[in-house]
Specification:
Elements lengths: L10 E7 L4 E18 L6 E2 L13 E7 L8 H11 L4 E3 L2 E3 L4 E3 L14 H9 L18 E2 L9 E2 L2 E7 L5 E9 L3 E3 L6 E3 L13 H6 L12 E10 L3 H16 L2 E2 L9 E10 L3 H21 L13
Parallel strand pairs: 4-7, 14-16
Antiparallel strand pairs: 1-2, 2-4, 2-16, 3-7, 5-6, 8-9, 10-11, 11-14, 12-13, 12-15
Helix pairs in contact: 1-2, 4-5
Length: 317
Amino acid sequence: MKGLTAIAGIRVGHASNFDALTGCTAILCTAGAVGGVDVRGSASETASLDTLQPGHITGQVHGIVLSGGSAFGLETASGVRRYLEQQGVGFRVGKAVVPIVPGAILFDLDLGKSGVRPTREMGESAAAAATGDAVKEGAVGAGTGARVGLIHGSRQAMKSGVGSGLVELDGGVLVAALAAVNAFGDVRDPATGKLIAGARRAPDSRELADTEAIMKAGGRRTDSGGRNTTLAVVATNARLSKVEATKLAEFGSLGIARTIYPVWTMFDGDVTFALSIGEARADVNTLGVAAAEAVAQAVVRAVRNAPSMGGLPGLAG
């Protein structure tokens, strides 16, 4: 699926370390895009979110970076900025050009090698690899070390990764999404309501345990505090203001809520970014309906396209 790159002007690149099981994903919009953000989880770690606020002097962003490595992974944004500066892309301040690149991270330090994290150089590599081709999905980029279903710890979780989605509206209006899914909760397919990935009953079992049922029955969780996050980017070719882009990000977060159970916990750092790049016209509420659907598609595809890796089973085999 072309996914997020169906929006003209958006390119996506991954950098992955399959030995350490970590990586980052760069979403580039070099011509500039109006951005917004919605933070729902209580364990988020982010960079440059102020630039997305309606009152900020910078009217556009030039990229978004999603990264593994916990807080250490925020270094990748510097690499993307360096790449964009070399291309002459950014917010012009006198003789200087400053690329505006917000970012967010997820925790993957306890699946692969905890001492190896995404670096500035990895961020630069992801940016250099960015293309308008169909988005590569599965355990790549920011999703290289991603998992879902952490109530019993990593040994009984399942592998996850990156997924993308696309909804087409009348008049050539497009809404697309990309998600890196590293959730505490389980993933349900909204089309059927059935659990498809998440916590397993035992390390050697593929039978899903149902995290919400465990919680309601008073079951104990292992220490998963701050180790989970779903990061999403939703984009449209419709023209939006910063206020409307922020609203689009909020609508996009509904796609996470429709697929992950439980969602937005104290253990998750869930963040949804929104990008408007284009001149099409559409009501923001209609765009919001499509945004929730596109993000839900992306979350489901993130687990369906994840292979077994790091000792964890994945739905892609």
